[in-house]
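hey can u check if this looks right to u? its 148 residues, i copy pasted from the old doc so theres a chance i mangled smth
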Amino acid sequence: MRFELRIPPLLLFVVIALAMWLGAGDDRGRGVLLILAGALLLVGAVFGGGALLHFARQRTTVNPVRLQQSRVLVTRGVYRISRNPMYLGLLCWLLALACYLGGPWVWLGPLLLLGWLTRFQILPEERALRARFGISYVQYCRRVRRWC
């Protein structure tokens, strides 16, 4: 498919976050929504940062467009909870932004990110990782969910 592995997830995240910011009204989240936003920011940082740390320790690429450069299958740390903790971190941050911005339309941003990443990033990555790591990756997929 034309869009598979073409748009870097971080770029997609920035574009969606900017669209959410520009499209939001003046009705900012209050009270519980702000507490939830803070919690989601923290959870996103733990997942995203933990994932980057494990990739650095294994000296493998974090470039989601160049999967052929993957040296090892990372399955420790946050990768025991989610097969895609970096993407989960980005999703948590967009959810936090939606909580902060308030209003019904901003919730389309996280839904768009979730759908796009699953279809055009994660599914092609899974095919490539299955081809590269074989039964080890298949067994890992049986143990750990795609998102969490």
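Residues 24 and 115 are 21 Å apart (CA to CA).
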